Amino acid sequence: MSPLNFTHTLTQAVDELSKDSSYQSVFHQHVDGNPLPSTQALREVVELSRAIIFPGYYGHSAVNSCTVSYHIGVNVEQLFTLLTDQVVAGLCFSGKDRCSCYATPQRERAAEIAAAFISYLPELRRLLATDVAAAYTGDPAAQSQGEVIFCYPSVRAIVNYRIAHQLLLLGVPLIPRIITEMAHSETGIDIHPGATIGEYFCIDHGTGVVIGQTCIIGNHVKLYQGVTLGAKSFPLDRNGQPIKGIPRHPILEDHVIVYSNATILGRITIGQGAVVGGNIWVTQDIPAGGRVVQSRAKK
Amino acid sequence: MSPLNFTHTLTQAVDELSKDSSYQSVFHQHVDGNPLPSTQALREVVELSRAIIFPGYYGHSAVNSCTVSYHIGVNVEQLFTLLTDQVVAGLCFSGKDRCSCYATPQRERAAEIAAAFISYLPELRRLLATDVAAAYTGDPAAQSQGEVIFCYPSVRAIVNYRIAHQLLLLGVPLIPRIITEMAHSETGIDIHPGATIGEYFCIDHGTGVVIGQTCIIGNHVKLYQGVTLGAKSFPLDRNGQPIKGIPRHPILEDHVIVYSNATILGRITIGQGAVVGGNIWVTQDIPAGGRVVQSRAKK
Amino acid sequence: MSPLNFTHTLTQAVDELSKDSSYQSVFHQHVDGNPLPSTQALREVVELSRAIIFPGYYGHSAVNSCTVSYHIGVNVEQLFTLLTDQVVAGLCFSGKDRCSCYATPQRERAAEIAAAFISYLPELRRLLATDVAAAYTGDPAAQSQGEVIFCYPSVRAIVNYRIAHQLLLLGVPLIPRIITEMAHSETGIDIHPGATIGEYFCIDHGTGVVIGQTCIIGNHVKLYQGVTLGAKSFPLDRNGQPIKGIPRHPILEDHVIVYSNATILGRITIGQGAVVGGNIWVTQDIPAGGRVVQSRAKK
Amino acid sequence: MSPLNFTHTLTQAVDELSKDSSYQSVFHQHVDGNPLPSTQALREVVELSRAIIFPGYYGHSAVNSCTVSYHIGVNVEQLFTLLTDQVVAGLCFSGKDRCSCYATPQRERAAEIAAAFISYLPELRRLLATDVAAAYTGDPAAQSQGEVIFCYPSVRAIVNYRIAHQLLLLGVPLIPRIITEMAHSETGIDIHPGATIGEYFCIDHGTGVVIGQTCIIGNHVKLYQGVTLGAKSFPLDRNGQPIKGIPRHPILEDHVIVYSNATILGRITIGQGAVVGGNIWVTQDIPAGGRVVQSRAKK
Amino acid sequence: MSPLNFTHTLTQAVDELSKDSSYQSVFHQHVDGNPLPSTQALREVVELSRAIIFPGYYGHSAVNSCTVSYHIGVNVEQLFTLLTDQVVAGLCFSGKDRCSCYATPQRERAAEIAAAFISYLPELRRLLATDVAAAYTGDPAAQSQGEVIFCYPSVRAIVNYRIAHQLLLLGVPLIPRIITEMAHSETGIDIHPGATIGEYFCIDHGTGVVIGQTCIIGNHVKLYQGVTLGAKSFPLDRNGQPIKGIPRHPILEDHVIVYSNATILGRITIGQGAVVGGNIWVTQDIPAGGRVVQSRAKK
Amino acid sequence: MSPLNFTHTLTQAVDELSKDSSYQSVFHQHVDGNPLPSTQALREVVELSRAIIFPGYYGHSAVNSCTVSYHIGVNVEQLFTLLTDQVVAGLCFSGKDRCSCYATPQRERAAEIAAAFISYLPELRRLLATDVAAAYTGDPAAQSQGEVIFCYPSVRAIVNYRIAHQLLLLGVPLIPRIITEMAHSETGIDIHPGATIGEYFCIDHGTGVVIGQTCIIGNHVKLYQGVTLGAKSFPLDRNGQPIKGIPRHPILEDHVIVYSNATILGRITIGQGAVVGGNIWVTQDIPAGGRVVQSRAKK
C-alpha cells in the first residue's frame, strides 16, 4: 500500500499534534531546546562502572593483572566524559533558567561531580564486594562468587542502586532515578535511589521487591522476592499535593530477614535480628529478635 | 575444535528436525510462507508513537516549537508505513486462506487501520496526560512530570496498553497482545489489551500487576505492585476447551485503590472509592466506600 | 568541559582501582587470563535454539517446507560453534587449573557436549509442544497456538529452562544459570536449571514465580504469577556455610494447581490434583486432591 | 551552541527547498511515491552471489562439504527475495506509469527475472573460474588461486560486471549500472554492464580501466591499469542529444593484450593476439598479431 | 594462544610508544586535548546535504510532495547540529590557542557558518542540477537523469566538491579537504576544494582525474578519466619550503574538452572551446578553438 | 511475490551449486574446514595500528599526554589478539596439512609473529613520520602536518604498505596482500607488500599508482598519480607458468621524481636525482640526474 492515498489523514494528524496547545499545556515543564538525559548513555555509564569495579567479569573478558590498568584507565576516562554530559542534562532538566545548561559554570559543576563520583569508585567496589559475599554465603545453590557476580539479578540491582545513591548524594537530579529504574526493568527489583542501605545486603530472587525513598536498612539484611518496604499513607499540603521528603518508609536494623511477598508499611522499625514471615502485611514495629508469620491457612 | 568431527551428528539432527511430521503436526496453525509480525518493527511502532505523543522526551531530545512539526511529520509517516506492514502480518496470521496476505484488499484494509490509528493519536496524548498527572500527584517521591514520563515503568506499561487497546478496537489480531507483552517484559506489568481502563489511571511500582482481558476499570483508579485482577474459574465447552470471551474479571469503579499483592478474582464489582488492603484474596463484591484488610498476622 | 583539569583525579582513581590488593583479594576466584562466558553469545544460543524448534516463528519469518532444512542446517551449525565456545568458557570458569582451557581435551569435551545437546533438540521440541498445548488449552484469552508461542512469557521462560536443564545434565557449569537468569530478567519467572519439571507445564502471567533448585514437578501442573516454590531453611556446615545440594524444595505431583502469590516452602509434597489458593504460605504436605485457601479477610 | 538562535534561517531554507518549483522542475523524472533501488540491498545481492559462487571464501568462512548445501540454500533464498524487490524498484524507476510498481504483474515479472538469474548462477561460477585461472596464471606475484579470489580487485570488478551483464540481458533497468558502479568505486575499474566479455578475462592492477557500453571482448584478453576502451565521438540527433545504442566502442579479439594507460577509441578492431603498448592513443584498427608502442621519449 | 606469555613485550612497546619524545616531537602541531573532526560525522554531513538536495533519491526513498518538507526539515536541523560541531573542530584544529575551542565565541562563529551554509543549499541545488544535465546530455549510455544522480561517480565527486568549496569560502579550515578526499576515495576523482568551477561541469568515468587548488574552470567544461590539471613547479621560500597560495594550475575557459589521461600543467590557459587529446602532456597555452593530439604511435 | 512459486527453481539451483564437482574442482586449494582471514578483522588491525602510531588523530580524538598510555595499552593488547588470529588464518591458508591450524604450535608461532610486529611499532612510527614530513614539505596546498595525516590518501596507502611489508618480512602469507589491497581500494594506490621503499617517501594525489613486487625505492623519492613501476615481461617455466620471485621491477635511487602517468617497466635503474616526465613509457636505465619527457604533441 502506498502511503499516498492517506496523505491527507497523516498531515492533518501532524498539524493537530504540532499545536502548542496540544503538547505544551500538558507537558509544560520541559524547557524548550535543552538537552535531555540519554538512556543509552546512562546504560553505558552503568556498564563502564561495572567493568571498572569487576575487572575481568564485564567489559573485556580476558584482562590480566599486567594490563588491567590500561583497561581501567580507558574506561575511567570514558566514564568521566559520558557522566559529565549526563549530569549537565540532569542539572538542566531540573533548572528553571533556559540558558543555564550551555553556560560554562554548569559544565564545570557537572565535571566536578563526575570526578567526585570517580573518586568514590574504590569505596563502591569495597561495598559491592560485601554484597557479593552475602549473596554467596546465603544461597546453597550458589557455586562460586563468580556465578553470583555474573548471574544474580540482585547484584545487578544493587550495583545500580549504589551508583544512583552516590550520584544523588552528589546533588544530581533525575539521573539516579533513571539508573535504578533500568535495574527495575531488568530485575523486577525497585530500589529508590534515596534509600539508605548498609553493607552485606542481599536480595534472593528479587522479582517484585520494592524499597521506598526514605527506607533505612542496616548491615547483613536479607530480603526475599516480592517484599515491599513501602509507605502507609502520606500527608497532603493545602493544595492536596503530597508533601515531599517526609520519612514514611520502614527502618530495618542489622541482620533482619524478610520472607517472600511480605509487605512492611510506614515509618516503623523492624528490630535487630527480627524475622518477618512471607505473605504478610506489617504496619507496626517489631522488636529486636521478633518473629511474625501469617495466620494459618484454611483447608 | 573443528565442527568437522561432528558433522554426522549435526546433519542427522537437521534431518530429523526438518521432517514435516516433527514440526507441522504440532504447530499446525502456521500457514506456510505467510509473513509473521516482527517484534523489532513493533518495538519501533511503540517508540515512534511515544516520540509523537511526548515530543522532546523520546526520539529526539532537542526539539523546539518551531521545528517540532518536522519531527512529528517524519515520525507519523514512518509509523504509518511500519504499522501497515505489521497489521497485514497480523491479519494474515489469523486468516485461514494462504493467499490472502499478498492480495491488495488486505493491504488496503491494513492501511485504513493504520490511518485510523494515527487519527487517534491526539486523543491518545490527551488520555496519557491524565495518567501522567495521576502518577505525579499520587507519588511524594516524584520530582516533576518529566521524571514521571522519563522514568516510571507504569507510564511505559500504560502507553503500550492504550496503543494496543486501540488497535484491538480497530480489529487487529495478535499485534495488540505482542505490544502489551513487550511492556510486561520491561515492567513486570501485565495488562491484557482487551481490558477497559478509564482516565487518570495509575500503578505504583507495578511489578507483578496482572489485569485480565475482561476487566473494566473506572477513572482515578490506583493499583500498587503485585495486584492481580484475575479470573476465578472459567466454564469449559463440550470438548473441555475454555469458552472464549465470557466476562470473568473484576469491575473496579472510580477512585478505587488496591494495595500491593492483593488478588481480586472473578466478575465481581469493587464499588466506587473502595480500598482493598495488601496481600489479600478477594472473590466477592465490595460496596462503594468499602475497605478490606488482611487478618492479623501471628507473632 | 575538557577532561584535562581533572586528569589528576582520574589517574589517581585508576591507580587505586588497578592495585592487586583492591580487586584480587575480593574477587579471587577468577583465574587470570581465562575467557569468560559471553552473555551476548548465550543470547544467540537461545535464539538459535528457538529458531530451530519453532521454525517460522523465530529467526526467519517466511520459511516454507521445501527450504526449511536449509535454515535449520545453518542454524544447527552455528549453534554448535557458539555453544562449544561457551561450554569451554563454562568449563574453564569452574576449573582450578589455569592452562586447562586452551588445551585440546577441554575443547574436545565441549564439542561432545554441544553435539549431545543438538541431538537432544528433537526431544526438546516434543516437550515444548506439550507446554504450548497446555498454555493454549488453559487460557480462555489465547486465540491460537501461534499467539502462545509468539507472545507468552511463560513459553519463553520454559524454553530457557529446558535448554538450561539439559546443559546441566550434560555437565556444563555456570552456563545453565546464565540462561535461566536471562529469562528471569525478561519474564520475571525464576526457574533454577536444577529443577525437574514434567510435560504440559504451564505458568499463567508468570511475573514473580520462583522455582527452586531441588523442586520436582510432575505433568500437567499449572502455576499462576507470584508463586514461590522455595526452601524453608537450610543446614549449615561447620564453617557456617550452607551445605550444597540437599533436597529442600517442594515436590508437586501431577495436575497440581497453585494460585497467584502462594508460597510453598520446604521439602514437602503437594499431592496429585491438589489446589493451593492464592496469597498463602504453605509449609506442610497437602494430600492428593487437597485444597487450601487463605483465611477470610477482615472488612 | 543551541540551534534556537538560527531557527528562522533554518525554517526559511526548508521552505525554499520544499517548493515544488525548486526540485520537481529540475528532477522531474522521479515518479512521486515510487520506491527507489537501495544501494544497501544491492550490496547484499552482490555479497550473497559471491558467497554462493565461492563457498568458503565469502559469507561464512568455515563451510565444509557436508553442510555447504545449507549455506547455499539459505543464501539462494535470501538472494531471491532481495533481488525481486530490487528488480521491482528498477522496473518502476524506468516505468512511466505511477501505479505500476504496486501491481501484481510487476512483482510477478520481477520474481521471474530473479529466478532466472538464480538458474544462471552455476554458469556464472564456471565463467568466473576461468577469470580466476587467468589472473593466477598471468601474475608471477600470485601465490594461489585463493589469494586471487580473496585479494584481487579485478576479480571483484569482473564478478560485479558478470552479475550486472546477466541482469541487463534479463531486461532489468538501472540496477546493472548501480552494481558495476559499486565495483568502480571499490576498484577504480569501470566496466559498463552492456559490454560483452569472453572467458579467461584478466585485468592487472586495474585502477583507471574504462570499458565502454558497446565493447566486444573475446577470450583470454588481458588489460593493464589505466586502459580505456572508449568512444571517439558520437552522432547527435536533431535535438542535439546523443543517439543511444550505436556501436561506438572497440572490438578486442581473442588473446589481445593492452598495456597500462593505453587509450583505444571508436568502433575499431584489435585483431587476435595483438599487443597494444602503454600510454598510447589508438583510433585505428590493428591487425591480428600486430603490435604498437609509443614513439620514443625525449631525453 | 593466551596473551599472557607476551605481556612483557606488549607493555614494553606501550611504554615506548607513550613517551612524549616519541610522538610529540614528530606530530607537534596537535594541541593537547582539543577535539578533532570526525570522518563519520562529516560523512553524515554529506549524506544529509545530498538527501536535502535530491529529495527522493537519497536518505528516504518514498518522499512525496505533501510530506517532503517534514523530511527536509528534520535533515536541515540535523545538518545544522552536525556541521556546527565539525566546524568547531576545524576551527580548533587550525587555532593556536588551546582553550579557544571550548569558548562560546568559537561555537557562535561555527553556528553562523553552519547557518550560512544552509542558506546556500537552494543555490547549491540549482548548480548541481546543471551538472546533472551536462552529464545526461553528454553520455549516450545514460538512460535518465535519475540514473545519472544515482550511479555516476562524477556527480558524487562534484557534490562533495561544491559543498567543500562553499565551506572553504565561509572560512572553514581542514573540513573542506576531508570532504573532497572522501569523494576522492570513493570515485578516484581528486578535486581540491580551492578550485573554482563553473556550471554544467561534467567528468566522464572520472577515475584518476586531478584538479589542483588554483584551477579556474569555466562553464560547460568536460573532462575524461585520468586528466590532470596540475602544477608544473612551485617556488620555494628562503627555508626551502614551498610558498603557499601562488596561482600555479591551469585556467580552462568555457566549453573546453580534455580527453582521457591528458596532463595539463602550470598556470596556462586553455582557450574557449579548445580540445585536448588523450595521453598527452601540455605545458603551454592553447588558443580558443585549438586542438592538440599525441604524436603518432610506432607500429 | 511469495517465493513459494519459485521453490523448485531455487532448490534445483542449490543442488547444482552444492555438488562437489561444481566448486571443488575449480577452487581446489581451499582446505575443507579451515578458517579464512577476515577482512573485517584486518581492517581493525590497520585501524588499531594507525591509532597507536598517530595518537589523537585516529581511534580516540581527545587523547591527552597523561592518559595516552591507557589508550595505547588497550589498543596494543587488542591488536595482539586480533593479529594473532589473523596470522593463524594466514598460516593455515598457505599450509598443506588440514589439521595444522588448530594445533598449538601454529598458534604459538602466530603469537610470536604478532608480538614481533608490536615491537616494531615504534620504528614504524618513526618511518611514517618521515613520510608525513615529505608530503607536507612537498605540497604547497598542505596547511599542516595534521591535514596530511588526516586527509592525504598517500599516507593511508603508505601506512598499509609499511604494515604489510613488515608482516611479509615476518613470514606471514596472504595477509600482507589483503592489507595493501584495502588501501588500493580506498586510494587507488597499488603497492605490492614485497616492494622495498626507503624513508621520506611521497606520492602526490596517487590514484592509479602501481608499485610492483620487486621494486626497490630509495629515500626522498616522489611519485605523482598514475605512475606505474611494473614488469616488462616475465619468463615462464616448462609448464608455461610464470616463474615466481624473479627481480623484474625498476630500481629508483634516492631523490628520484616521477611525474603523472609515467610508466617505468622492467629491472632497470633510475639513477639518483633523475626526473621522469609525465605520460611516458620508460624501459631503459636513466642515469643519475637524467631527465626524460614526452615527445612534443601535435597540434
Q: What does this molecule look like?
A:
The structure is a homohexamer of 299-residue chains. Chain A is of the alpha/beta class and 299 residues long. The first copy, chain A, folds into two domains: 33-188, serine acetyltransferase, domain 1 (Orthogonal Bundle), CATH 1.10.3130.10; 195-236 and 245-299, 3 Solenoid (UDP N-Acetylglucosamine Acyltransferase, domain 1), CATH 2.160.10.10. Helix content of chain A is 43%, strand content 10%. The first copy, chain A, is built from eight helices and 14 strands. In chain A, the strands form three sheets. Chain A has a five-stranded parallel β-sheet with strand order 1-4-7-10-13. A five-stranded parallel β-sheet of chain A has the order 3-6-9-12-14. A four-stranded parallel β-sheet of chain A has the order 2-5-8-11, with no helix packed on it. In chain A, α3 packs antiparallel against α4 and α4 (68-94) packs across α5. Chain A is globular and about 65 Å long. At the A-C interface, α4, α5 and α6 of A face α1, α2, α8, β13 and β14 of C.
